[in-house]
Amino acid sequence: MNKRIALVTGGIGGLGTAHCRALRDQGRIVVATYRPGTEERARAWQEERHGEGYEIHICPLDVSDYDSCKACVERIEQELGPVDILINNAGITRDRTMKKMTREEWDAVIEVDLSGAWNITRQVFPGMLERGWGRIVNISSINAQKGQFGQVNYSAAKAGLHGFTKALAREGARKGVTVNTISPGYIDTAMTRAVPKEIMEKIIEEIPVGHIGKPEDIARTVAFLTADEADYITGANFSINGGHHMF
């Protein structure tokens, strides 16, 4: 069993949970992060995974805070070892039209969804280069590719994430470190379940396969891209959206 250590930011959410399961199924040691101040929820999540047969470590992390990222990685290195696999999955939305969006709403999304990826990647990338092996997967969005009304902050951050992927992939390519992006479409998570039924029905009508995706649809690609054998795929973006946006 391969004992490489995988870190999943936002790991106790809907998508994050699927990523953690898929990585454990690969034989990885998995660490899921949770927002500081939500330890009770994180412990309950951990116990639930244990009941399913998945042993997953947890660590508090505010990706928008560089020092929090540093502390989280240092803790993982001390308790488990160096991080070999990073899934930049943490993200938030603060939807509002440009006309009504506040500076705080813009900054919050950019700081978590884009700067957060830099904050945590900066802690693990040098070590990956030194060891000559690493896998980084950045979770973007269909709305980074096609844009979305009322999401200039989110669309900009997620589009920037793929630019981050391509530039970082060039830095890691000769050192055995691959960096890729996944851009999910509409996936069955708590976020999409909160969308009013009539709006979701209209969205589904636009998806050629006729339904939204499952978290496992994304997690399977995470597992594929982080496999030991996936050393010739880097700087790529994988669109998983049921044909909702083709380009």
Provide a compact summary of the structure.
This protein is α/β, with parallel strands linked by helices and 247 residues long. The protein has helices spanning 14-25, 39-51, 66-79, 103-131, 142-146, 152-172, 190-193, 197-205, 215-226; strands spanning 5-8, 29-34, 57-60, 83-88, 134-139, 177-184, 237-240.
Describe the structure.
This protein is 48% helix and 15% strand. By secondary structure, it is α/β, with parallel strands linked by helices. It has a single domain (5-235), classed as NAD(P)-binding Rossmann-like Domain (Rossmann fold, 3-Layer(aba) Sandwich). A 7-stranded parallel β-sheet has the order 3-2-1-4-5-6-7, with helices on both faces. Helix 2 (39-51) links the parallel strand 2 and strand 3.
Note the main attributes of this structure.
single chain; Rossmann fold; seven-stranded parallel sheet; 9 helices; 7 strands; globular; about 250 residues; alpha/beta
Radius of gyration, Cα only, in angstroms? 17 Å
Indicate the overall shape: globular
- End-to-end CA span: 39 Å
Q: Give the percentage of residues in beta strands.
A: 15-25%
| Helix fraction bin | 40-55%
The major sheet is characterized as: 7 strands, parallel
